[in-house]
Structures are given as C-alpha cells and as structure tokens.
C-alpha cells in the first residue's frame, strides 16, 4: 500500500473535517444571529380541538339542548400573492364587498373573511370560491360550536346556562358539565418561515372526544302543561312568582319542574337574580298548612290521640307564651280528624304540645325536612329548621301548623310522595340516563333515603288528605273521575328586616290517583296579591293540571309502560 | 498489549453524549405524549441497545483478531443473504424495504453488510494479493462481492447507504493499489447506474431536486433548511440541553438522521466542535491502530472500519449543514437505531481487538519501509 495513496485518503478525510468546521463556524458564529432570528420567527401553535357538547333530552328523546357546528373562513396575509384578484373573486361570492375583502387581505397576519355560518352555507361558499378560481389553499376553515336551546323559557332553570367558554354555569349544564363537555383534543400547527401555517399528520395531536348525552326524567308535555298553568295562576293573581313540580312517587323521577317567571337560557339574560334561580329546589318558604301532615302523622303514630278524639274545644283559641293562636274562622268543637279537614291551627298546636318538642323534631326530620333531598341539580337549599334546643314553646307551637319553619318545594314534594307510596322517602332524580354514543354509561336507580314506619298511620293520613279534597279546603283541586289526595297551604312569609308584612305563599300539594298514586304535584305561588287563600289560588291550578293529565291518560300510560 | 485506551474512552464519551441528545431530541414526543413511558420508549430502547452494543464491543475486543478473521467469510455470506431476504420479506415505509422484522425486533441488514464487506475485502486481499494481476481474481474476490452488496442495497432502495458503501469500497480498493484507470471506469459505470436509479425513484429525485432548489421540487430542501436553522440558532454556546425547538416539529424524527442539528442547536459551536473533535480523535486513533497492526488483514480491517465511521460522520454532518442532498445516513453511535448502534459498537470491538495486538515497538517508518512491490505490499512478509 503506497504511502501516497494513504496520504490521499488522509488528506481527503482531513479536508472534509476542515470543510465541516469552517461551515460550522460560518453557520453558528458568523450567521448565527441571523439563523437565530429566523428560527424564532417560526412559531408553533397548539390549537385546541373543541369537542361537541353533549345533548340534553327529555325522557322521550326530545332535544332540549344541543350544539351545532358553525364554520368560519380565514386567510393569512402572506398566503395570497395577487390580493386584488383574490378580493374580486371573494366579492363574486356575494359574501363581502370587494373593498372589504381587499382590506382584510391587506391587513397583516391572520384575518377572518366570514364567521359563524352553518355547514351548508360554508359548503356553498367553498363551491363558489372554487368556481371563481380562488385556490382553496389560500383560505383556512375554522370549526366552532354553538349551543342551541330549542325551547323558550320553560326549561331554562333545569337546563341552566353556559359561560362564554362553554362551561356550564347552572342547572344540568353545570351539574353534568364533566359528562357534557367531552374531552378537548389538540393539534400542533407550525408557521413556515416563508409564511403560512400548516399541520402535518405526523405532528403530535390528540383527537377530541364528544360529550355525553343527558336524558332527563322530565317529560316535555307535562313540563309545558305545568308551565302554562303556573304562568296563568301567577298572572291571574299578580303573584311574584310560582313553581310547580310533578314527581313519580314510585320512582322519585321528577316529571316536571317549573318556575315562572324565569330567565331565557343561551342569551345572557340579565333578569333579576330571584328569577334566575331554580326556585323549585331553592325557594325557602314557610309552608303553612301543607306541613300539618308531619304534626298529624307524629301524633297518630305515637298513639297520643285517635282520629275520633275531641281535640279543640268550642273557644277555638289557644294561648302560648301569652300569644293567642286562633284559627282563620271559628269551627266549634273539633275532633282530630276534623281539625285536619278544616285546617285548624289550634288543633295542630295541641297535637304538637302533646307530642313534646324532641319527638316532634324527630318527625320533622323523618320526613326529610331540614336536609337537602339530594336531587341531581345544583343550588338546592335545605330549608330552615332550627335545632329544638333553641325552640321556645311558641316556636314549636307555630311549627305545628307550618309557620316558623321553611321548606323547599322539592322537600314538600318528596314528603308527600312518601305518603303516596306508603312510606318510602325517595331521593328525587332529574337525570334518567347518560349516554356515550349509543352506550348507556349511567342509569338512575330508585334510591330510598329512608322508610317511614307505620304504614297504618300513613293510610289514615292518606284518607284524611282525600277528604280534604273531597269536602275540605281542597275542593278546587278535584279532578274529574279520579280520587285526589292533597292539602292546601296559606302561609305568612317574613321578609328579612321587615318581619311578617302580610305577604303570603299559597300552595297546594297532592297526589293522584289516590288509590295507586302516579303523580305527586306541588304548586307554590309566591306572594299572590289579588287573592290570598290557597283554596282559591293554588288548588284550582292543581285541579286544572290534574284534569289535563287525566285527559292525557292514554299517553301517560304509554309513557309509564316504558319506564 | 492492552486495548487502545484513548479510543475506548472516546467511544464512551460519544456514546453517552449521544444518548443525552437522543433524550433531548425525543423531548417533544415525551412532552406531548399522554404518558411518559410511551414517549420515552425510544430512549429506553436506545439505552438498552447501547448497553448490549457496549457488551458486544467488550466481548469482541477480548477476542484474538485471528479468530475474528475466521468468522469473516461466513458472516459476510449471512449478511448478503439477509440483504437478499430484505427484498423479499422486508418492511419499511412507503414501499421502501430496509428492515427485517422479527416481532418487536427489527434489523437493518445493510448495517451488517457494510462492515462485513470491509472485513471480507481485507481478508480477501490478505489471501489473494499475489494474484491481483489476474482480472478473474479481481472480479471474483473484489468487484463481484462489492457489486452484489451495493446492488442489493440499491434495490431496497437505499441510495444513501449504497453511496457510502461505494465510497468505502473504492477507498479500500484504492489503498490496496488497484489501477486508478480501472477504478475510474468502475466509478463511471456506478455513476450512470446511480443516475438512472435516481431518475426512476420519485423520492430520490425529489430530494436531489430539493437540494439544488430545482423547479418542481415539492419542498425545496425543507429538512436541510430547518436543520441549518437549528444549527445556526445554536450560535456559540447553544440554547442548552432540551432548549432546542426545531427538533420538535420541523425536523421530523430528528433523533435519527438529523440529531447533529439538535446538538448544534442545544450546544452551539462549542458542542459541535467537541463532537467533531471526538470523531476526529476516533479516526486518528483508528488509523494509528491500522499502522500498528501486525499483518495486512489487521491493517486493512482497522483502516476500513475507521474510514467507514469517518465517511458516515462526514456525510451525515454535510447533510445537516446543507452541503449534500438528504440521503438518510445515521450519525454513528448517536442516531437512534438498534442495528446501527450494535453493529458499529461491534466494529469498534474489532478495532480494539486489533489495537491489542499491535506492535508498539514498530515505528511508523519501519512499517512503511517494509518491502513493497509497485506500491503493493507483498503478502506473506507480515507473518510473525
């Protein structure tokens, strides 16, 4: 091997290393700053891929909230070489004027051409653009999603509202946000040093996962019915507001939950705060006579009295702590049973006094008052129930007829449902199923919070409630052809700082058919002005809804057969 | 005699630095992947492969290179058979067949072929140097094996590797004293075949067009342009380990062929200078081992292995510096790739084994003043 030839190779290798070194010095030291700046101009963009928010549907699959895609078209200043030509072509699509297009194309960087059009319109635009010879790689498309509530206001308090960035703020939208929102994906785009952005399939990315669908226990037809009747009652008696709840006493499913007046979802309604709340679960009100079932149940179940015992003497008054309590009208001598039909406050005070405050308190708790029902909606209140240690004699005397205690409409509904179903205090549900695609990933189960013992007393109470509607204060709640059980409530309300100023809440709670209850219906009318008594305000509203439901029965039966 | 310590530690340095760079250039994948293990899978694999390769290097360096010489012919035949097999059952991206896949392990026979070809040529020369005047011997023991290996690699197609193997073979034949005119003729033939090959292969045509910024090139040298951006923006001191951004997206799979760009971006000129220095030391030591070797096989084998490394380093970096079209050559010891790393380290084992037997007492001049015959060593004179 000649030294000469080895030297040739040696020199070749050394010169190659030398060339590399010189080139490196040139690139890294002499031109380093230039390349550094150029490299800095290359931007990476991590773009979030928004998933489609899940639908909310009623129990029959009627859409109550859905998201649909909108498209926007954008361009990059540097994408388009011949801006005049491009602007003329865009103007030909009739979308925007030539001047506007030119202005947008000349503005440096990123520009929207049009925002938020539907899929079909976008398709037309693309077709026109292609027809007019605009190269489609000069334009970019951006997909967005809009939340649509295809109803007016009747579902707003249940469904709730969304924030600007598509997060639930209230209602189901808030409570089930994690299911509804899906999972965001992302993709990485790069800006090319010569301008423009693009993504390649081999760039890291994650596909978005669409949100789950929520199916409510609410039935749209019942919801509409209750809404329109509550609305009529509120308007007729010039009330501040009203709410209504229908619950299936056998399962705990809430079939309708209505607030009137209320806000409109999806428009950023600026209505007063009182109307933004779902008052059916958050309105703390003094229940009045509808609360008397607790007092009556306690006394009968404890066997302190029998239904036929004489309870109220002919004076019809009672004095507690030097405060005289009397009934709305004089009834004369009343038995235990009679005092319930005529809704005697004096009778209830006597029963509560016989029961003693500790026992009375335990019966209040037994029916679920003083704690949240646990319904799957946000913002539930638990009413106001003070500890019996802080009760004075007058306090529990008034609680006996539903004053000095506050409950929510949903609590009272659950309590009456327990009487309707023979003693099972159920957790109310408003979400029936959560579906991921076609797969059901959550199904509500019947949940019994506790069973109220003493079936016998419950049956007596049920009969008493039937009598109230048949011949007592609840006559206006009668439903043709059906046996109805229910109770009126007309209660004074205290305003913070003002005390009892004469404002009242008029309510009616009941269930039907009384033999095999399928519906518990609660009507609460807040501060009616043109009339006061529940027998006039709330009971007729109950009756109208009940009558309509009974005419809907073939439909209702069909619905129940499916459950 | 002991193995060459300088070479040994030099290899260790490059290896560890390389692993660090692999980890850094995988950064984006680790960052953006859902779980850490999945993202760093390639690094862990490379670490395991490096350990296996290191053990292979140690094992082979312990052997007597006479033993290695006995294995050259069978291993070379196996390598050629595997190269053939790749064309039939191989896998790869986009119709390109470069890999033999056995479950989780994939193997690139061209890596094995290039080193065994070098060893085969060295061993053939040691046996047949007297008969080199005979054209039949030249064809049978030299031109034909070279042509078969290059031909099979071209058919994969893998023009980059074929090009470097051609260059290595040419260098070997050149220092063996083959007639320059004959070699020139062979180069002409090879070039014309290569030209035809590039013209009929779309991806190769595109890359060449891209390099020369020809019209119709889809992405005008995009990869090498980004590579230059990366290296340049490292400036003198670099952006720091893990600080480079280019690798994340602009240089797809920077952890393979463009890892030098990551070194340049993150360690600046200091880093690239150190790296080139380390490779230069390797080449110098390799050539020294060749000079110190006891016989013509030892000389040619160590020389061949050294220039193989040198050429890969040179062309990989030239590509990264946009001085040569993108051909997909790994940076030895550093680029992710199991076959390449294990086989390169094994080749280092052979080099270290030869270094062990070298005669230190023999001065350079003594070595070259041995009897020559028309620029060619006479065989047999080296025995003992």
Write the layout of secondary structure elements.
The complex is a heterodimer of chains A (563) and B (384).
Chain A (H helix, E strand, L loop, with lengths): L2 H28 L1 H10 L2 E6 L6 E2 L5 E14 L6 H10 L5 H9 L3 E8 L1 H13 L7 E10 L7 H4 L11 H5 L1 H5 L3 E7 L5 E2 L6 E2 L6 E4 L3 H17 L4 E7 L6 E7 L12 H4 L2 H4 L9 H10 L8 E3 L4 E4 L2 E4 L7 E2 H6 L3 H11 L1 H10 L26 H7 L9 H12 L3 E3 L4 E6 L2 E5 L4 E4 L3 H17 L13 E11 L3 E14 L6 E8 L11 H14 L1 H10 L1
Parallel strand pairs in A: 2-9
Antiparallel strand pairs in A: 1-6, 2-3, 3-4, 3-5, 6-7, 6-8, 9-17, 10-11, 10-22, 12-15, 13-14, 16-19, 17-18, 20-21, 21-22
Chain B lengths: L4 H21 L1 H6 L3 H4 L1 H22 L2 H25 L10 E3 L2 E3 L1 H20 L6 H21 L3 H17 L4 H21 L1 H10 L10 H12 L12 H4 L9 H34 L3 H25 L17 H20 L6 H5 L3 E2 L2 E2 L7
Antiparallel strand pairs in B: 1-2, 3-4
Write up this protein:
The complex is a heterodimer of chains A (563) and B (384). Chain A has 563 residues and is an alpha+beta fold. Chain A has 2 domains: 43-50 and 70-144, Ribosomal Protein L30, Chain: A; 220-562, DD-peptidase/beta-lactamase superfamily (Beta-lactamase). Chain A is built from 20 helices and 22 strands. In chain A, strands 2, 3, 4, 5, 9, 17 and 18 form a 7-stranded mixed beta sheet that branches. In chain A, a hairpin with a 5-residue loop joins strand 2 and strand 3 (63-76). In chain A, helix 9 (220-236) packs antiparallel against helix 19 and helix 14 packs across helix 16 (393-399). The radius of gyration of chain A is 35 Å and the shape is elongated. The N and C termini of chain A lie far apart (96 Å). With 384 residues, chain B is mostly helical. Chain B has one domain (5-359). Helix content of chain B is 70%, strand content 3%. Chain B has 16 helices and 4 strands. Chain B has helices at residues 5-25, 27-32, 36-39, 41-62, 65-89, 109-128, 135-155, 159-175, 180-200, 202-211, 222-233, 246-249, 259-292, 296-320, 338-357, 364-368; strands spanning 100-102, 105-107, 372-373, 376-377. In chain B, helix 6 (109-128) packs parallel to helix 15 (338-357) and helix 11 (222-233) crosses helix 13 (259-292). The longest helix of chain B has 34 residues, at 259-292. Chain B is globular. In chain B, 49% of the residues are buried. The chains are: A alpha+beta (563), B mainly alpha (384). Chain A binds chain B through residues 1-6, 8-10, 13, 16-17, 19-21, 23-25, 27-29, 31-36, 38-40, 42, 44, 188, 190, 193, 200, 202-204, 206, and chain B through 28-29, 32-34, 171, 174-177, 225, 228-236, 245-246, 248-250, 252, 264, 268-269, 272-273, 276, 280, 283, 287, 299, 307, 310, 314, 317-318, 321, 323, 368, 372, 375-377.
């Amino acid at each position: 091997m000649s030294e000469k030839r080895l030297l040739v190779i040696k020199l070749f290798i050394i010169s190659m290393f030398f060339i590399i070194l010189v080139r490196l010095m040139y690139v890294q030291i002499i031109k380093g700053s230039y390349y550094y700046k150029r490299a800095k101009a290359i931007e990476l963009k991590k773009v979030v891929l928004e998933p489609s928010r899940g639908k909310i549907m009623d129990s029959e699959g009627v859409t109550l909230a859905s998201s649909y895609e909108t498209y926007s078209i954008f361009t990059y200043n540097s994408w388009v070489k011949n801006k005049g030509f491009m602007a003329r072509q865009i103007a030909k699509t009739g979308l925007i004027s030539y001047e506007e297009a030119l202005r947008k194309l000349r503005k440096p960087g990123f520009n929207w051409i049009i925002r938020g059009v539907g899929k079909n319109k976008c398709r037309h635009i693309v077709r026109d653009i292609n027809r007019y010879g605009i190269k489609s790689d000069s334009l970019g498309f951006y997909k967005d999603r809009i939340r649509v509530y295809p109803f007016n206001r009747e579902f707003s308090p249940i469904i709730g509202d969304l924030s600007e960035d598509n997060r639930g703020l209230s209602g189901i939208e808030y409570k089930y946000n994690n299911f509804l929102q899906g999972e965001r994906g992302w993709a990485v785009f790069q800006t090319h040093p010569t301008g423009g952005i693009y993504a390649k399939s081999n760039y890291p990315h994650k596909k978005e996962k669409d949100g789950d669908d929520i199916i409510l226990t609410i039935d749209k037809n019942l919801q509409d019915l209750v809404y329109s009747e509550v609305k009529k009652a509120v308007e007729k008696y010039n009330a501040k507001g009203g709410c209504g709840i229908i619950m299936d006493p056998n399962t705990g499913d809430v079939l309708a939950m209505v607030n009137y007046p209320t806000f409109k979802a999806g428009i950023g309604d600026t209505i007063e705060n009182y109307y933004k709340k779902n008052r059916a679960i958050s309105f703390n009100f003094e229940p009045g006579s509808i609360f008397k079932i607790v007092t009556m149940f306690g006394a009968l179940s404890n066997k302190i009295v029998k239904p036929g015992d004489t309870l109220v003497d002919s004076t019809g008054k009672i004095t507690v702590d030097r405060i005289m309590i009397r009934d709305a009208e004089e009834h004369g001598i009343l038995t235990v049973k009679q005092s319930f039909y005529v809704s005697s406050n004096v009778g209830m005070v006597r029963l509560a006094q016989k029961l003693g405050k500790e026992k009375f308190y335990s019966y209040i708790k037994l029916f679920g008052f003083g704690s949240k029902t646990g319904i799957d909606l946000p913002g539930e209140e638990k009413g106001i129930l003070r500890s019996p240690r802080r009760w004075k004699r007058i306090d529990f005397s008034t609680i006996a007829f539903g004053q000095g205690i506050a409950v929510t409409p949903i609590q009272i509904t659950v309590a009456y449902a327990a009487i309707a179903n023979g003693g099972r205090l159920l957790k109310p549900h408003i979400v029936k199923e959560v579906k991921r695609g076609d797969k059901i990933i959550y199904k509500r189960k019947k949940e019994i919070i506790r069973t109220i013992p003493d079936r016998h007393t419950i049956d007596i109470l049920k009969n008493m409630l039937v009598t109230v509607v048949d011949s007592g204060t609840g006559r206006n709640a009668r439903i043709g052809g059906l046996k109805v059980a229910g109770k009126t409530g007309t209660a004074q309300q205290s305003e913070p700082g003002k005390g009892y100023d004469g404002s009242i809440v008029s309510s009616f709670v009941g269930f039907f058919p009384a033999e095999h209850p399928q519906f518990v219906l609660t009507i609460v009318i807040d501060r009616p002005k043109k009339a006061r008594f529940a027998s006039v305000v709330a009971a007729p509203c109950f009756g109208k809804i009940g009558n309509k439901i009974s005419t809907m029965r073939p439909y209702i039966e069909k619905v129940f057969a499916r459950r | 005699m002991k193995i060459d310590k300088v070479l040994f530690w030099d290899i260790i340095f490059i290896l560890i630095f390389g692993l660090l760079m692999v980890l850094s250039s995988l950064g984006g994948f680790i960052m953006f992947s859902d779980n850490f293990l999945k993202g760093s899978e390639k690094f862990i694999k490379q670490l395991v492969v490096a350990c296996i390769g290191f053990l292979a290097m140690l094992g082979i360096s312990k052997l007597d290179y006479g033993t290695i010489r006995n294995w050259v012919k069978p291993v070379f035949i196996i390598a050629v058979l595997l190269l053939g097999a790749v064309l039939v059952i191989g896998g790869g991206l986009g119709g390109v067949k470069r890999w033999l896949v056995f479950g989780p392990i994939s193997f690139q026979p061209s890596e094995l072929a290039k080193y065994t070809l070098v060893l085969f040529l060295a061993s053939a020369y040691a046996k047949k140097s007297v008969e080199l005047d005979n054209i039949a011997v030249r064809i049978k023991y030299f031109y034909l094996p070279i042509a078969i290996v290059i031909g099979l690699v071209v058919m994969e197609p893998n023009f980059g590797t074929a090009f470097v193997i051609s260059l290595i073979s040419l260098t070997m034949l050149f220092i063996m004293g083959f007639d320059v005119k004959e070699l020139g003729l062979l180069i002409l033939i090879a070039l014309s075949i290569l030209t035809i090959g590039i013209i009929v292969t779309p991806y190769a045509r595109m890359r060449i067009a891209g390099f020369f910024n020809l019209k119709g090139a889809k992405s005008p040298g995009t990869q090498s342009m980004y590579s230059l951006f990366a290296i340049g923006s490292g400036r003198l001191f670099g952006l720091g380990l893990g600080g480079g951004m280019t690798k994340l997206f602009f240089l797809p799979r920077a952890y393979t062929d463009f890892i030098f760009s990551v070194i340049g971006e993150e360690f600046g000129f200091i880093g690239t200078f150190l790296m080139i220095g380390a490779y230069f030391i390797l080449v110098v030591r390799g050539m020294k081992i060749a000079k110190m070797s006891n016989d013509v096989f030892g000389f040619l084998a160590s020389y061949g292995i050294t220039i193989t490394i040198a050429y890969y380093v040179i062309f990989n970096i030239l590509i990264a510096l946009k001085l040569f079209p993108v051909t997909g050559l790994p940076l030895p010891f550093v680029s992710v790739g199991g076959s390449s790393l294990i086989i390169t380290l094994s080749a280092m084992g052979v080099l270290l084994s030869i270094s062990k037997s070298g005669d230190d007492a023999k001065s350079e001049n003594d070595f070259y003043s041995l009897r020559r015959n028309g620029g060619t060593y006479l065989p047999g004179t080296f025995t003992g």
